[in-house]
Amino acid sequence: MMFGTLRYTARRQRHVIRRRAWPAIASLLAALTVLAWASFAQAITVAAPIRTTSADHDEEFRISRADCESSNGFTFTITDVLSGDDLSVWGTGTGADCSTTNARTVDNTCTLVESIGVVSNTSAERTISHSAIAAVLSDVSGCTDGSNSDAPRSLTLYFLVNESQGDVPAGDYFMVDTLEVDLIGPPAPSNVVVSVNDDTSLLVSFSEPSGTTDIKGYRAYCDPMPGGGTTSSGGGAAADYWMPAAGAGGIGGTAGAGGVTSSGTAGSGGSTTGGGGAGGGTSSGTGGSTTSGTGGATSSGTGGSTSSSGGDCSSSVLIPGDVPSSAYECGSVTGTGDITVTDLVQGVEYVIAVAAYDQVHNLGVLSELGCGTAEPVSDFFDAYRDAGGEAGGGLCQCELVGASFDRPLAVVVALLLGLAFGLRRSRRTGGLL
Q1: How many other CB atoms are found less than 10 A from the CB of residue 73?
Q2: What does the alpha-carbon distance between residue 139 and residue 206 come to, in Å, rounded to a whole number?
Q3: What is the DSSP letter of 159?
Q4: Residue 252 near residue 292, CB atoms below 8 Å
Q5: DSSP conformation letters of 307-339
Q6: pLDDT tens column, 343-369
Q7: Rounded to an integer, what is the distance from CA 346 to the centroid of its chain?
Q8: What is the pLDDT of residues 201-216, one digit of tens each?
Q9: CB 353 within 8 A of CB 175
Q10: In terms of Cα–Cα distance, which of 68, 331, 313, 369 is closest to 192?
Q11: Choice between 107 and 383, residue whose per-residue pLDDT is larger
Q12: Could you tell me the CA-to-CA distances from 328 to 138, 171, 274, 333, 386 in Å, in that order?
């Protein structure tokens, strides 16, 4: 009987223990479920950035100077957040960890790009301007890069959840590290040489800048612009800037001194003296006219070739070391090679400089200046004729002494002579042709 009572008591105690344990187990499971859900819900995700408008280059995630100066930007789609989360965007160009309070407040190695604020949905979309992203780099101010580096520069954006609470744990932030900033064009080319290509074009050759690989091509800039209608750097109306400047006339001859009038009867000496007087009366007009005409003609020829820039290859609009205006662009080449500048006016001296541009079309500074004048180019027969040659002027004409033959007739004559020679040879040898 006692044994049975003991068994009953033991069973009852185990039952009480199990009944009391269930609430604790349920509480533990609930807590684990909340933690698991919280961890899953806070795994914030940001999609790849998308430009708000198309760029004029092919580098999808690179910000050029033109991009920075525009009102455009990148749009970011943020998902897997909770309603009530406070979102902010921080950036760094130093590789710092912006999820830590220290990097954001003490070391100042991270910059607040934008405070998105409290969200009411599990997803959000935000557009951030190119200029705000570029300003993450400490030496960029107003789209001007003070680093003087023409190479693309990387940066990282941190999308943080509830950053005001201190260090942001893993899963509560997302990094975007695909963006680059490139605001400076390539260095200037060197050794610019301008040479005649033909009567309406010039060839511009140059040496590529060293120490850089971010070059897509080169552009030439001209003063005055080809085709007419642009005021040259030396001044003058656009309508007649191509007219050669007239040379200064020659200095007139010095008038002859008049003879001394004889007070006596004119003798042979008097006659000589009188002749001198007559010369004095006319030498000013005659001598001046003759000297002025000769001097004027010679000086006009030389003065006519004087350039609009004053003959010293300078320009008031093309300044070496400065970024040029697109209004003076007159030729370009993609990759490497010479640039041909066309549509020029003969006799006009053009001031030309070259600048390189990079993969995102940032334009570099101008090279030193070169000058050239488009002139007619003589071929062999032109030069031969100019030297006094009188033979036929081309491949389609043969000329013998006292006779001229067109090329087809000359060919027929040559064939007939060859045939006659063959027949004669055949008769001598007794064979057949």
Answers
A1: 22
A2: 33
A3: E
A4: yes
A5: -TT-SS---SS--TTSPPPGGGEEEEEESSS-E
A6: 999 999 999 999 999 999 999 999 999
A7: 27
A8: 999 999 999 988 899 9
A9: no
A10: 369
A11: 107
A12: 34, 54, 68, 16, 38
